Amino acid sequence: xxxxxxxxxxxxxxxxxxxxxxxxxxxxxxxxxxxxxxxxxxxxxxxxxxxxxxxxxxxxxxxxxxxxxxxxxxxxxxxxxxxxxxxxxxxxxxxxxxxxxxxxxxxxxxxxxxxxxxxxxxxxxxxxxxxxxxxxxxxxxxxxxxxxxxxxx
Length: 153
Known about the structure:
By secondary structure, the chain is of the alpha+beta class. The protein has 5 helices and 3 strands, in the order αβββαααα. It has a 3-stranded antiparallel β-sheet. The longest helix is centred in the C-terminal third of the chain and has 13 residues, at 121-133. It is flat and about 45 Å long. Mean pLDDT is 82; it is low at 8-21 and 59-63.
């Protein structure tokens, strides 16, 4: 996936209602099937970095930087996610399509239409699960964690 493809995918969110912020995003459970909406990506800090040759493979092998060593580091400005995560630019573009309205089927269709690449709905759901477990989605899991932190405060 080229950088221009990533820009094209990010532009798919340009028709969003500008008055809808994180408060307007529904709190959803993680999607369990291809037709359920995927929770929205939270407002996070994203930094483009270059990974050294040695660090280009994630331990799980699931999320690796681009061929040129480019990676996107996501950090939680609220501090609720326990640690930052590293995504390939393509994975970040995929996550940017998670808006609380699109399902895995809709995300796969958008990628196929804009980039001409097929991504299996099961992979999209698996990626969603990883982001949800890391607390980077505006999901029920995140909401429970945020409420727990508020009570402790």
